[in-house]
Amino acid sequence: MAHNKTVPQVKGDFLLGNLRQMIASPLQAFYNWQQDYGDLVSFRLAARQFYLFSHPKLVEQALIRQSDVFVKIYNPEKPTGLALILGQGLVTSQGDLWQRQRRLMQPVFQRSNVTTLLPQMATAGNNMLGRWRQMGEGAHINLSGEMMRLTLEVITQTMFSTSVLDKIEQIAPSLEILLRYAAKTIANPLTLPLYVPTPANRKFKQALGIIDDVIYGIIDQRRTAPSDQNDLLDMLLKARDDNSGEKMTDRQVRDEVITIFSAGHETTANLLSWTLYLLVRHPGALARLREELDRLLQGKIPNAEDLQQLVYTRAVLSESMRLRPPASFLLRKVSKDTEVDGYFLKADRLAIFSIFNLHHHADFWPQPEQFDPERFLVSQNRRYSFIPFGTGERICIGSHFALMESQLLLCMIIQHCDLQLLDPEEVEIEMAITLRPKGGIPVRIKWR
């Protein structure tokens, strides 16, 4: 295979390679390596070798033109990352299983169907605002926790026609434990396997048991009392294999339900949290957003047609996803020796595509650290330099759902609330698969 460029290797320790930097802060490590070594680098975590991609051209050549080479990782014998939680759900599965499940679920997430779910989303938003009002003027809340609660209610009501808010005190910390552990297995290959009874492993198993109880409870409830909800859960339970005619096993249904349950609210909650935080810190952008909402909505809850007219609102969300992408990287395995942009890449290494680095690349984003929604009001080719939902055939199935939900709920909150930060210090970013506000976002609620 002809190639003439060698991938730069990040300097590290003799035995552990770059493990210390990764454990300290994967997000900062990825950004520093791109700044110091370039847009394609190689790094090592103990014995495991990785490639880090940080340029749109490289993303296109790998994920679009060589999608059969850069493949999803799922090893049922030794699962890592999200596979530890999601099993063979839509995010982690591959091949025929992935294609079949994607075809099955696609209709639920089409834009035309998502618009019919707007009233349920609005109800969840109104319930939250009503609960806030009951707390009284000047009440203190943790914004990130509130957004997790809100988006969890939206996803369970719209996809499974149920509510799990009565179990939120168990669900929220359990999901946090699971995501932190999943991230650790990627960042630290020396993590001991789950069968070793370490405190962290026991904690993970207990958290997974809590979430599994919730998920299987939802499934059992529907099997016991079938309905004509025609929601995602109905589709999964009624689906039959094209060849055998067999229905999905409870384990298969569980894997898909927990995928939508967790991925479907975690990323949107972080998007809303970061967006509200950034708006509070940038009064000029907040004032312009309020002007658009007051002018076009005049206090009402927007419908699907209204949302299309809210151009600056969408620009605010896009700029938030650029600056703080909820999903900050994509992970693939190089299935065979290949070449990307003249660089030779070896088989069986892992490839990380840093969405954060792409969204902060100075060649494509002037003043990349600045929050400037107006950059999204200008028509520009952002192909592969802006991929908050991934790209290629594995692009997030729920992108329309997440954008419509985020836009609606942002409008409702901004129309009614003035949020004031309780801590003037900048909120730190924490990468636990998704980009979270470390320690949450404490705010005071004032009513407009």
UniProtKB/TrEMBL annotation:
Q: What residues bind heme, as annotated?
A: C396
The protein's required cofactors: heme
| InterPro entries per the UniProt record, alphabetical | Cyt_P450, Cyt_P450_CS, Cyt_P450_E_grp-I, Cyt_P450_sf, Cytochrome_P450_Monoox
- Keyword DNA repair part of the UniProt annotation: no
Matching entries from CDD domains are given as: CYP132-like
Family under the similarity heading: Belongs to the cytochrome P450 family.
Q: Which keywords, in A-to-Z order, does the entry hold?
A: Heme, Iron, Metal-binding, Monooxygenase, Oxidoreductase
Q: Which GO terms describe its molecular function?
A: heme binding; iron ion binding; monooxygenase activity; oxidoreductase activity, acting on paired donors, with incorporation or reduction of molecular oxygen
Pfam families (UniProt xref): p450
Descriptive protein name: Cytochrome P450
